[in-house]
């Protein structure tokens, strides 16, 4: 039941990334031969999604180790490529642990491949755990892209959707377009249609109306960083979905591997929220859509407070109605 798409490929002496900026109408690959090119691919969104950028960064360190470049400089440029998803720093810390032990490039490669493989295994576990929470013939809403493109395979929230569909528990997915970068309209739609999972695209602004007028069982989303108290940073618009879900009696599920938890941060208030250039809002594919002198504010993540979350699904288990005590008990 693993997804066929493999967006991160180790090619022996370089890293190949499926360019997510041009999907779904073009399948183009970006070849990276050093950590700076990987950092550029992460910052420029050729590869995106919290677990996927952690995996790509791990391979980035391997590339520099292969050519005996400056490990510290490579780590720094990768760490600074995007601020919100903690998986990036988590993967770098794990690679640093191996490097400190005096590892060569081959040993670093083995660790990067392990991080990659473990992510897929964790997603398959979370898929089963999350699918078990859904009623038969569930109708769900998902946001952004949390599938094979965003991870080591299968996906987090989309992994739960895939697993639920495989056991016949899923009747219908509504996926938001996810303005402004359109991860939902371009990437989630691509993954869902490739596997014939029944799905309908909605405008982000249609979600509350959908919950008010049709029976929706769960909103299922991924995460970029989960604080110790369960507050969850995810793609901008997630918080609005959680507020609407609570208003309409719809359950709200967050699906994320243990590498997405940041237990050093007690609440979501301390999570750094990435702000990207106004141009992503004022232009579409290079063509202006707002007046030329229009300014814009473009935060690309928001924080959903833990009390709006009914369940956090992690590979270690399910936390219902998350609190700091429950998160620390499961994560250790
Ligand atoms: O800006 P992006 O596309 O990297 O944001 C991705 C998300 O917000 C995902 O929901 C999150 O990383 C979880 S992916 C499994």
TrEMBL record:
Its EC number is 5.3.1.23. One of its GO terms (molecular function) is S-methyl-5-thioribose-1-phosphate isomerase activity. Pathway: Amino-acid biosynthesis; L-methionine biosynthesis via salvage pathway; L-methionine from S-methyl-5-thio-alpha-D-ribose 1-phosphate: step 1/6. The record marks 144 as: Transition state stabilizer. Coiled coil: none annotated. It catalyses: 5-(methylsulfanyl)-alpha-D-ribose 1-phosphate = 5-(methylsulfanyl)-D-ribulose 1-phosphate; 5-deoxy-alpha-D-ribose 1-phosphate = 5-deoxy-D-ribulose 1-phosphate. It is an enzyme of class 5 (isomerase). Keywords: Amino-acid biosynthesis, Isomerase, Methionine biosynthesis. Gene3D superfamilies: translation initiation factor eif-2b, domain 1, Translation initiation factor eif-2b, domain 2. The active site is at 224 (proton donor). One of its GO terms (biological process) is L-methionine salvage from methylthioadenosine. SUPFAM superfamilies: NagB/RpiA/CoA transferase-like (SSF100950). Substrate binds at residues 48-50, 82, 183, 234-235. PANTHER family: METHYLTHIORIBOSE-1-PHOSPHATE ISOMERASE. Catalyzes the interconversion of methylthioribose-1-phosphate (MTR-1-P) into methylthioribulose-1-phosphate (MTRu-1-P). Also catalyzes the interconversion of 5-deoxyribose 1-phosphate and 5-deoxyribulose 1-phosphate. Part of a bifunctional DHAP-shunt salvage pathway for SAM by-products. Belongs to the EIF-2B alpha/beta/delta subunits family. MtnA subfamily. This is Methylthioribose-1-phosphate isomerase. It comes from Hydrocarboniphaga daqingensis. The lineage of its organism: Bacteria, Pseudomonadati, Pseudomonadota, Gammaproteobacteria, Nevskiales.
């Amino acid at each position: 039941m693993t997804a066929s798409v493999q967006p991160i490929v180790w090619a022996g002496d370089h890293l190949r990334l499926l360019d997510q900026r041009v999907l779904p109408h073009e399948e183009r690959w970006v070849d990276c031969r050093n950590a700076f090119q990987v950092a550029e691919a992460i910052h420029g969104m050729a590869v995106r999604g919290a677990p996927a950028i952690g995996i790509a960064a791990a391979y980035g360190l391997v590339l520099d180790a292969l050519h005996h470049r400056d490990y510290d400089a490579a780590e720094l440029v990768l760490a600074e490529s995007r601020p919100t998803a903690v998986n990036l720093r988590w993967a770098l810390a794990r690679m640093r642990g191996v490097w400190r032990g005096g590892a060569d490039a081959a040993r670093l490669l083995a660790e990067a491949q392990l991080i990659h493989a473990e992510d897929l295994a964790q997603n398959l576990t979370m898929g089963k755990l999350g699918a078990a929470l859904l009623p038969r013939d569930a109708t769900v809403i998902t946001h952004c892209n949390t599938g094979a493109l965003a991870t080591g395979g299968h996906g987090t929230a989309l992994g739960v959707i895939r697993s639920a569909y495989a056991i016949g528990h899923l009747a219908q997915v509504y996926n938001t377009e996810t303005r402004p970068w359109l991860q939902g309209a371009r990437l989630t739609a691509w993954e869902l249609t490739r596997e014939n999972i029944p799905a309908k695209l909605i405008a982000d602004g249609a979600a509350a109306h959908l919950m008010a007028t049709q029976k929706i069982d769960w909103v299922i989303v991924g995460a970029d960083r989960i604080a110790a108290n369960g507050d969850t940073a995810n793609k901008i618009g997630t918080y609005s979905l959680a507020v609407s879900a609570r208003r309409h009696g719809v359950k709200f599920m967050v699906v994320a591997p243990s590498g997405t938890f940041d237990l050093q941060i007690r609440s979501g208030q301390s999570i750094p929220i990435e702000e990207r250039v106004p141009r992503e809002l004022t232009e579409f594919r290079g063509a202006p859509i707002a007046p030329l002198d229009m300014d814009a504010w473009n935060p690309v993540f928001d924080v959903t407070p833990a009390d709006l979350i009914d369940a956090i699904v992690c590979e270690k288990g399910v936390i219902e109605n998350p609190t700091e005590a429950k998160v620390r008990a499961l994560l250790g």
